[in-house]
Specification:
By secondary structure, the chain is of the alpha/beta class. It has 2 domains: 17-156, Orthogonal Bundle (serine acetyltransferase, domain 1), CATH 1.10.3130; 162-277, UDP N-Acetylglucosamine Acyltransferase, domain 1, CATH 2.160.10. Helices cover 44% and strands 13% of the residues. The strands form 3 sheets. A 6-stranded parallel sheet has the order 3-6-9-12-14-15. Strands 1-4-7-10-13 form a 5-stranded parallel sheet. Helix 3 crosses helix 4, helix 4 runs antiparallel to helix 6 and helix 6 (120-136) packs antiparallel against helix 7 (142-154). It is globular and about 70 Å long.
């Protein structure tokens, strides 16, 4: 009897749910198929132009189904899906710039194809750019499904509402967190374990900018934590490893922890850095 009562309670609770959810399996299949379509060479997938066009139409159908699950209106669904695929060339070329940034900056990267298929940071960035387009189109839940799937595969957590400029480079990537209202400029490089987060997790702050702004050409090394919606990291700055920042930094700064570790070396590193915590 107790079990029957619980099942009825659960059924009634599900009926009251205010949010429609997409098919979880279909969402994962779409994002991987779409990524492969864009970045796995057609020779490897043994496809000609006709077969690629057919697959592209199939992907449109995939996405339309997922959007309809959360939107529930056929006309609006079609408008959003058409807009997404109309923007696909622009998203693709922006991702090529991201891949080029990795290739140009990482000495371990031997080719742009290697970056596309073997770098988790590139995969996470690609899923972010797909998700961000849907997020800006007003689609609920589905972009989070995509971003959390990428998170589960790569350990990189990028909210689809974040704003990220061109030539974005994630190296290694595990443990990176980029919050919803984060703004990142062009040519920014981020290493593993970096958090771009909020100072407050109060629900009342949900509509405000809670996450930092990272201007152009900034490098943030591993383990750094930068918090707060008013925190701005000025352009061309370098943020050292394990730094904790809740205040803004001027452009062209170098921020680091002064190490107290003693090294047996008669020629210590010159103290040329200009911003010390």
């Amino acid at each position: 009897m107790a079990t029957t009562t619980f099942i009825k309670e659960l059924f009634d609770q599900h009926k009251k749910a205010q949010t429609a959810f997409p098919d979880n399996v279909l969402a994962k299949e779409f994002i991987d198929k779409f990524f492969d379509f864009l970045f796995i060479p057609h020779q490897q997938r043994k496809q000609n132009v006709f077969e690629m066009e057919k697959e592209f139409e199939s992907l449109k159908s995939y996405l339309s189904t997922l959007i309809y699950d959360v939107v529930g209106e056929s006309i609006k669904t079609q408008e959003i899906a058409n807009d997404f695929f109309a923007e696909t060339p622009a998203i693709y070329h922006k991702l090529l710039e991201d891949a080029e940034a990795v290739l140009n900056f990482d000495p371990a990267a031997k080719s742009i194809e290697e970056v596309m298929v073997a770098y988790p940071g590139f995969y996470a960035t690609a899923v972010y750019r797909f998700s961000n387009k849907l997020y800006k189109s007003g689609v609920k839940i589905l972009p989070r499904f995509f971003s959390e799937y990428a998170h589960s595969k790569t350990g990189i957590d990028i909210h689809p509402g974040a704003t990220i400029g061109k030539s974005f480079f994630i190296d290694h990537g595990t443990g990176i967190v980029i919050g919803e209202s984060t703004i990142i400029g062009d040519n920014v490089k981020i290493y593993q374990g970096v958090t771009l987060g909020a100072l407050s997790v109060s629900k009342g702050q949900a509509a405000k900018k809670r996450h930092p702004t990272i201007e152009d050409n900034v490098i943030i090394y591993s383990g750094a934590t930068i918090l707060g919606g008013e925190t701005v990291i000025g352009r061309d700055s370098v943020i050292g490893g394990n730094v904790w920042l809740t205040n803004s930094v001027y452009p062209f700064s170098i921020v680091y922890h002064k190490s107290e570790v003693s090294i047996r070396d008669s020629n210590p590193l010159p103290d040329v850095l200009n911003f010390v915590i």
